[in-house]
Design brief:
The chain is of the alpha/beta class. Helices cover 44% and strands 23% of the residues.
């Protein structure tokens, strides 16, 4: 029987880990569960997964360390952090550490299943799409390859950086509202995701500095405008 996807689940709480694993397997996911961060790293190195569900506070190695190791091998695989830490600062740190989403315990299992479905569909769509290339000014951006080339060299982009730049390339030379970008790229509009977006905007802006005619402008109180020269 074909599974919906292969999930790496790292959670040190035995009861919660078993509950989540059982619920996911009931929905036809193939789940490999680990009880600490080092075990998760070792398992990821030897197997292929479609999505990673990581607790943050784990023994031996924490979830942030696991995510860093995963991101060294793949910028594409979705990472979802699960944590009891619910402050905005905690969530922002999670996104900065490589997460695609951040789920606060206790969480609703139906919500988790919906999130997994969204991320897996997004990943499959990305791989099924034809090659997507963008040329603006002196810059070449390959969304398919997660790579940007300018006069300073060739740069490998993180998945979220590429998602953001792709949206900007698809809507050049006009003001984009913050909520419009957040919903399109992150799937939700809220305060802590907005702070994360600003961090990624700064990263994208650094790649564009090689061409002074390409400008990512902050429109205070509104959003951003991505200005490119006429082709």
């Amino acid at each position: 029987m074909e599974t919906k996807g292969r999930i790496l689940l790292a959670e040190d709480d035995d009861h919660l880990r078993e509950l989540v694993k059982d619920a996911l397997e009931d929905e036809d996911y193939q789940v490999t569960d680990c009880m600490n961060g080092q075990e998760a790293i070792d398992v990821f190195d030897k197997n292929k997964f479609d999505i990673c569900l990581l607790d943050i506070m784990m023994p031996v190695k924490d979830g942030f360390t696991v995510a860093k190791k995963i991101r060294q091998q793949s910028d594409v695989i979705p990472i979802l952090f699960i944590s009891t830490k619910a402050l905005i600062e905690d969530k922002v740190e999670g996104y900065q550490k490589g997460a695609d989403d951040y789920i606060v315990k206790p969480f609703n299992m139906k919500e988790l299943l919906l999130k997994l479905d969204v991320f897996l569909r997004r990943t499959k769509k990305m791989f099924s799409e034809t090659k997507q290339e963008f040329y603006f000014g002196k810059i070449h951006f390959s969304y398919t390859d997660l790579r940007l080339s300018n006069e300073d060299g060739v740069f490998d982009l993180k998945q979220k950086e590429a998602d953001l730049l792709k949206f900007l390339c698809e809507h050049p030379n006009r003001i984009l509202k913050r909520e419009e970008i957040l919903i399109a790229v992150w799937g939700k509009n809220d305060y802590f995701l907005g702070r994360s977006m600003d961090v990624f905007m700064s990263k994208v802006r650094k790649y564009l500095r090689a061409d002074p005619d390409v400008v990512l402008e902050t429109i205070h109180g509104t959003g951003y405008r991505f200005t490119v020269p006429a082709s």
